[in-house]
Amino acid sequence: MKEIKGIKHIRESFKTRQVKYGGYAVLITLGVIVGLILINLLVGQFAPQIDMTQNKLFSLSDETLKVLDQVKTPVKFYGLWKPGEESQDVLPVINLYLAKNKNITLDVIDPDKNPGFVAKYDKDKKGISRGSLVVEGDKGFRVIAPYDMYDFTQNQQGGQNITGVSVERRITSALLFAGTGTTPVLYELTGHNEAALSSLGMVDTVERENYTVKSLNLIVDSMPADASAIIMNGPKKDLTPDEANKLLDYLGNGGRLMVLADYNAGELTNLNTVFASYGIKFDYGVAVETDNNYMINIPFSEIPDMADHDITKPLADKHSTPVVLLQAMSLSQLDTVRRTIEIKPLMTSSARSFLRTDLNETSPNKVASDISGPLTLGMAVADPGTGWIDPNKPQPQARIVVIGCGSLLPIAAQGIDGNRDFFMNSLSWVQNRPETISVRSKSLFMLPLRLNLIQLIIFAGVFILIIPVAFFVTGFVTWLKRRHL
Fold first, then answer.
1. Are 189 and 232 in contact (CB under 8 A)?
2. Radius of gyration over alpha carbons of the chain, in Å?
């Protein structure tokens, strides 16, 4: 009988509230586990991949996809590594190219076992590093060394830090060369104490984008016939009148020009004469920023707003490193501009900034002689020329990019990838190479989050007040419901 009562007692216990609630909890838990197992099995059948890295390290840009759509002939990728030693930063990106275009194939070549194969791609006889990638098409080939797939900056200990991953940028650039076989020539002006691209570590970056870099002194030389673009980087003095005339002739024939200059070069009278033909001029002075959201530590630094332009669109991405300027000079548009010219701002300071025109003035506040912001710190100019245009023979279009900051590239050398990307986008735009503008390195450099006062209040309210109170209320209500169980 005791045993029967025990069984009856057990049966009765299943009818209690505690067992009911516990049973529901067990059933729900089992249901969730079974559901997760089924979802996992389904996902395993389709094997989807989602790039959840902050800077989309393993996704291709829209411009790369456009380039891939144009690849109609076979292109071979040769990975010079032993099987199983592939870089996990490189191979997943290569697989994206293979998946998007069936004309592209990959062969893995062990360089130790195939020295003769590797030697035919060593055109400079300097050796090819293990881990390199060879991209070969009908028009030629490019060798991408393993260190070229990353961006580096010098640290205080004399070593180098990786600041970005540039696998996509290198491969897409190599695809473009393999399909065309042409290399535009970029001339950097000398004779005005300019900052040489080689001294800033930019020559390799430019050459990897399929440019050849040469020097040009217009004081003694004439304009080269093969000049695809001219760059004047951080001059410390003005052009001569003869140089200005040579540049005007060059631009008049559809030339391309980039100028990065600041107040250290002085008034730049002759250079402004060149710009006057295209409706713009430098405003002599130094931009002073008073809005903390637009500067880093000092008023003479600037984190400008990006205007809507092909050059700046990739930099507007929330994961991009911002452009940082130092001791910038502003630009303005002239009252009289030829109707064929199109002028677009690229970067602007805040409404609370001003241009200090009297450099002897020491007041930290705006004075009467200062020019109120917002200030235009960069401009892009396009001029298709005048006269009758044959639709079957397009007329050359002059293009100019002017930046009021001679320290744009020196700052880039300190690890600010946004500056380098802005420079390379500008170079691609003046060359009318839109396919390379958006294909930039995936930056690993992180700057502090920029929040204004309203955003700070909102975030503080959410994380300090709303979320803790929500947890407290939820817990209190749950306790009230269960205290009589």
1. yes
2. 30
pLDDT on residue 126: 76
**Token pair of 380, please?**
């892009």
pLDDT at 160: 62
Q: Kindly report, residue by residue over 429-457, the tens digit of the pLDDT.
A: 998 776 555 555 565 555 555 566 777 78
| Per-residue three-class SS string for the chain | CHHHHHHHHHHHHCCCHHHHHHHHHHHHHHHHHHHHHHHHHHHHHHCCCCCCCCCCCCCCCHHHHHHHHCCCCCEEEEEECCCCCCCCCCHHHHHHHHHHCCCEEEEEECCCCCHHHHHCCCCCCCCCCCCCEEEEECCEEEEECHHHHEEEEECCCCCEEEEEECHHHHHHHHHHHHHHCCCCEEEEECCCCCCCHHHHCCHHHHHHCCCEEEEECCCCCCCCCCEEEEEEECCCCCCCHHHHHHHHHHHHCCCEEEEECCHHHCCCHHHHHHHHCCCEEEECCEEECCCHHHCCCCCCEECCEECCCCCCHHHHCCCCCCCCEECCCEEEECCCCCCCCEEEEEEECCCCCEEECCCCCCCCCCCCCCEECCCEEEEEEEECCCCCCECCECCCCEEEEEECCCCHHHHHCCCCHHHHHHHHHHHHHHCCCHHHCCCCCEECCCCCCCCCHHHHHHHHHHHHHHHHHHHHHHHHHHHHHHCCC
Give the whole-angstrom CA distance, residue 452 versus residue 20: 52
Beta bridge partners of 344: 380
Separation in Å, CA 121 to CA 83, 85, 179, 209: 20, 21, 17, 19
Q: What's the pLDDT tens digit per position in 346-373?
A: 999 999 999 999 988 888 889 999 999 8
Spatial CA neighbour of 171 closest among 86, 83, 106: 106
Looking only at the bridges linking them, the beta strands covering 376-383 and 371-372 are: unpaired
Q: Which amino acid does the sequence have at 147? A: Y
Residue that has been written with the tokens 């602007």 in this structure: 348
Amino acid at position 79, single letter: G
Task: Give me the residue label for tokens 């456009």.
Answer: 66
Q: Is 17 exposed, middle or buried (0-12, 13-18, 19+ CB in 10 A)?
A: exposed
Which of 247, 234, 203 is CA-nearest to residue 424?
A: 203
pLDDT value of position 387: 41
- Determine contact, residues 273/244, Cβ cutoff 8 Å: yes
Are the CB atoms for 40 and 148 separated by under 8 Å?
A: no
Q: Are 294 and 419 spatial neighbours (Cβ–Cβ below 8 Å)?
A: no
In single-letter form, the type of residue at position 67 comes to V
CB-CB contact of 105 with 76 (8 Å): yes
